[in-house]
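Protocol step 4 of 5: obtain the predicted structure for the target chain.
Materials: sequence only (see below). No template structures provided, no constraints applied. The aim of this step is simply to have a reference model before the mutagenesis design in step 5. Sequence pasted as it appears in the construct record:
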Amino acid sequence: MGGFFCFTRRRNDATPEAGEKYLWLLDPGFRLVVRGCELNFEILKGGVMTENEIANRIMDAAFDIHRGLGPGLLETVYEVIMARKVAEFGLNAERQVPVPIRFEGITFDEGFRADLIVEKKVIIELKSVERLQPVHSKQLLTYLRLTGCRLGLLVNFGENLMKNGIKRVVNGLLSDDAALRDDKSVPIPAP
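Step 4 output (structure tokens):
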């Protein structure tokens, strides 16, 4: 049985930056992550995370980054740091992934570039604007449809409060997350 083992250790009197960061590969399918000095331990379902578990890690990373840097930097700065932070959580993140578009039987290789695709399951579209617009959600939903991914996170680092800067966009319902039914960006079919 494979799985991720994530540890975080931090002394109560230490700042989050204190201590060294470690990534240990215990054996195939097991990973141990130690940051700081406070100990947290999790075993995640046989090494395979759902989209929602991945999204929770991404949101944790976004809150950490926003708390540390605040709003107002360029999207590329947040992208580089987000990729690093997500990797610290034991997730694979690919930056600027080209996604081809197929139209009328023709494939266009440079359709768009996804800011980040995490574990080949969740697309992160990063923004650094004063306020998200409806077109941003529509754009991410199109990206989800073209890639076949089911969940995307629109993360706006331009907001004063990060909780106001994260929006989930769904390409079809995710069976393990009833909370998505409240998402106003995607119509939910009647039961």
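Step 4 remarks: Helices lie at 51-69, 75-88, 134-147. The first strand starts at residue 3 and ends at 7.
Proceed to step 5.
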